[in-house]
Amino acid sequence: MKKYLLVFFIIVSVLGFKTVDRPITIFIAGDSTAQTYNEEKDGLIKGWGQMLPLLFSDNVKVVNHAMGGRSTKTFISEGRWDRLLSEVKAGDYVFIQFGHNDASTRPDRHASYDDYRKNLVRMVEDVKAKGGNPVLLTSVVMRTFRDGSLIDDRLKGYPVITRRIAKEYDVPMIDINLKTRDFVTMLGDEDSKPYYRWVEPGIDHAKPEGLKDDTHMMEKGAKQIACFVAEGIKELNLQGLSEYVRLNND
């Protein structure tokens, strides 16, 4: 009888441990538009990655590896990709968003279209090999108006390549470039400025002289992009994530 009781308690214990599920983790690989900032040091600039946890319940953890000035080339060459990948466990998600610095004319950052494609494909395949779930995101639109119309020609073909890879490799994609383009177009030139890092002199201690930045976001803009990401998660019905998204209209 003691033997059967022992076996019973062992089975119960094992089953009990199995029912304790760890939170699904979202890892973010990206650039300054997604980065987490320290307001004391960096001022009022914010990245959408640091706002994303506000849109989930406790069942989802966000680990933000995004870093300013990084392209797919430098994110890999500096070892940042390998460090991120070493933390990924089966079932986790890796959100990958690059393009701004790949399109840069700076030789240390620039990645050609061919290299950008190869780097993104490598990232996708690396995540899948770990049992994780890659999700591609196109770049945040750069707020450039000409004659009253939004003209974002600085990102060139990089968002197009991202879309093609998503289709070819059957990878979920959130088209942040399209979502932000539509949003900024709807707002227009003047009303879109408060979302980006347009600050008057004396407002931001990190830029006391003021700033007109059409690439990076203030808190208002970073929150809006995080909402677009969360909406994209729900639209894609990403397993283990979409059910925990908390938007205002939920």
Automatic annotation (TrEMBL):
<dbReference type="Pfam" id="PF13472">
    <property type="entry name" value="Lipase_GDSL_2"/>
</dbReference>
<comment type="similarity">
    <text>Belongs to the 'GDSL' lipolytic enzyme family.</text>
</comment>
<keyword id="KW-0378">Hydrolase</keyword>
<protein>
    <recommendedName>
        <fullName>SGNH hydrolase-type esterase domain-containing protein</fullName>
    </recommendedName>
</protein>
<dbReference type="InterPro" id="IPR036514">
    <property type="entry name" value="SGNH_hydro_sf"/>
</dbReference>
<dbReference type="InterPro" id="IPR013830">
    <property type="entry name" value="SGNH_hydro"/>
</dbReference>
<dbReference type="InterPro" id="IPR037459">
    <property type="entry name" value="RhgT-like"/>
</dbReference>
<feature type="domain" description="SGNH hydrolase-type esterase">
    <location>
        <begin position="30"/>
        <end position="221"/>
    </location>
</feature>
<dbReference type="GO" id="GO:0016788">
    <property type="term" value="F:hydrolase activity, acting on ester bonds"/>
</dbReference>
